[in-house]
Design brief:
This protein is α/β, with parallel strands linked by helices and about 280 residues long. About 15% of the residues lie in helices and about 30% in strands. The chain has 6 helices and 13 strands. β5 and β6 form a beta hairpin. It starts with a strand and ends with a strand. The N terminus is likely disordered.
Length: about 280
Amino acid sequence: MARVTTYMGFTIPHLLRSACRLCPAHSALVALRHSASCYCTANGTIQSKRKMDHLERTANNFRQEVISQAKVCGITNESETVKRLRLAITNKDFTFKAGQWVDFFIPGVSVIGGFSMCSSPGLLEREGVLELAVKYTDHPPAHWIHTECTLDSEVALRVGADLHGYQESKGNGYKMGTVKLYYSAKNTSELLFKKNILGLMSAFPGKITCRFHVTQQSSPICEELQPHVTEGRISEKDLEKHVSKDTLWYICGPPPMIESISELLYNSGVPRNCVFFEKWW
């Protein structure tokens, strides 16, 4: 099989466990090398449309017919601004693939939320639960999660998102390659799932590496993170050394970050059909 080099942008805790995009809390860039075809969302020209409602932004996206009731069975603070919800799913026909999101229906709240899973499809299959990581904003669904949601709160979920080139299985011919993640946040407390990422680096030495970037760090960086942290944004110099004809780049983050990084890559000679990013929000 042809060798493919892939660079991904995600803010995810399970890089190798089919997890999906989190929330617009941070930016990240990942480099993957593998010898099989990969799946991803399609790239294209993007314009920031922050004021659009979730249902408007995703009106043309695929949605499953199943709408399942779900009960909140866990709430944890991933950072000062991000909560992780653990939701028990009642409908056995409810499934999702990595890269999809959910419409989030809240009783008494007219605005429909849209959040991506931060857990793998496997967790849903094994335990009947999924997890969301939601950053605090004034948007009604996010505000409800941070100020009113409690254990045993009941909501409803529906899966959506088009998956272009999705591979159900890489088969017996898949060989794990190397992964390079560039992950940026305001400070180290906002680097969600950093312990999971460090754990993956330890479990797969030489296969997975990560460079954390912090842009507004005001406190000392802990000893465990110091070897992996750079103060300042992800730069052209960081990325240009990975440019090659076999490289695919995946970006995830707020729309201005996606636009900035993608233009940087194009200007470095990366073909547009080798740059992929999330467009739904």
